[in-house]
Design a protein that fits this description.
Two copies of one chain form a homodimer.
Chain A lengths: L1 H7 L6 E3 L16 E3 H22 L6 H13 L5 H11 L4 H22 L19 H21 L8 H15 L4 H13 L7 H5 L1 H11 L4 H5 L4 H22 L5 H19 L6 H6 L7
Antiparallel strand pairs in A: 1-2
Amino acid sequence: MAAYLHLHGHPRVQNLSLSNPSRPYSLCYSPPMTIKMSQDQSYWSSINADIEAHLKQAIPIRPPLSVFEPMHHLTFSAPRNTAPALCIAACELVGGHRDEAMAAASALHLMHAATFAHENLPLTDRPSFRPTINHSFKPNIELLVPDGMVPFGFELLAKSDDPANNNSDRVLKVIVEIARAMGSNGVVEGLYKETLVGQSDGEELSDVSIGGWMRHTCKKKEGELNACGAILGGASEVEIVKLRKYGLYVGMRQGYLNRNASNEKELQKVVAELRNLALIELQHFKGHKVEAISSFINGVL
Amino acid sequence: MAAYLHLHGHPRVQNLSLSNPSRPYSLCYSPPMTIKMSQDQSYWSSINADIEAHLKQAIPIRPPLSVFEPMHHLTFSAPRNTAPALCIAACELVGGHRDEAMAAASALHLMHAATFAHENLPLTDRPSFRPTINHSFKPNIELLVPDGMVPFGFELLAKSDDPANNNSDRVLKVIVEIARAMGSNGVVEGLYKETLVGQSDGEELSDVSIGGWMRHTCKKKEGELNACGAILGGASEVEIVKLRKYGLYVGMRQGYLNRNASNEKELQKVVAELRNLALIELQHFKGHKVEAISSFINGVL
């Protein structure tokens, strides 16, 4: 987060400004241009608290304890990413109810947590740059338990189908969306590219890397998981496309901020550009929820 | 297969007898009591050829080659299990069309192949009894690529929804069924139990093991993946329950046959018992497809 904080100050106390000096544009909704971050903070806090409560109910610690205790731990110890909260916010933005996106948001966190565990699994051919985390369990458990978490995420999603609401088609669409984002052309590809970079001796995260492998990895690992809330909230095709792009830019931006780059100036430029691109996608939407969702790109999470 | 061959002779040349001396019962359909195994063989061959063709079309070798080549290899080099073919046979037994169960059958093989790769991943705390396979790729690839194969299986399933057929509810039911069977209370639990046995020094696969951990592992690893074809073929609830049980016994039986047990007599007894239990579940069904599906428990696959 160093680069971000250097640019904008601490997100908890700053004001949110939607104006952008380097790429001016007008927003078609008319919010107060400066809103208190504390309001947004409470919005995201309430979303995250609801997701956590939903997951805690979905993953009781029950037999076999040898499987469910690690599952509980790996789920709740993984760092958050942007996808679950953005899923809820997008659903609410288009007029959907939070409950409609709760299973998807929970599934997104489960799958992210599973990926995080496998990403940090010690393997003989893993590059040395990989961050060291505290491993609470032996490798066999940290391999197998996430293998159960991913199907469980899909189970939560498929069970959220409510025949009374006639939402089967939306749920199936979201399953396809999440499966693609998680799969061989999505997160797995991003992880693989990142591993390759770690294996090439001495390659630095230079300007070229920021535009090249890093952009690609941020897109695949962090960017493409963020579109499902709009579908569940009943968005139109145009709205889905716009919120998919918004999610892409938000996720990529977060991906850059989570990494260290040798050229901080270049990094800051890319991060600012992604923020602008993200805000442009929101111009289509109206209402007070726009302010809330736009605060994502000011680092509230 | 040693125990099985010892009991019944080579499955390709033997005759199929539905009678059972140790637990007599009558079948409510009236097939010829002895049918040529070659007929069944061609039934299973055609099913397996169709599944393979569907998977080959679904997994073209395309960029990124570094991900899709291993995915192709891991998918087609994994040994077959009973679930995919049984999925198709159950669908056809209840009057469904093969195409209705093809995505599910393909997904089942993909997930089985992913599990097989992770099961054989070299880890520092893996027990020494684990069978050595030829690893075509480095551990990082054999970890990551299966992580993409499981979501891809769910994607195939979710995309098989056909609004014209109004089958969304069936597809969602099958996603729940497969997710549960693959997850923390299913295959993952079975794998974990098997690992535990490997870790306890000197524990033998004795009579107690055959009834205890081995039964549990066969149930979880091989037994519970076999119910989805009936749902997709439009079976009634009663039919689904019966075919779920049939699949459970068939899968468990195959699980026992795939393992070595120190007490072969006990193993043969359990295998024969599971065959009887499986055949009882088929008494409910009528028509020539019953003969075909019953040949599963005579080791055609």
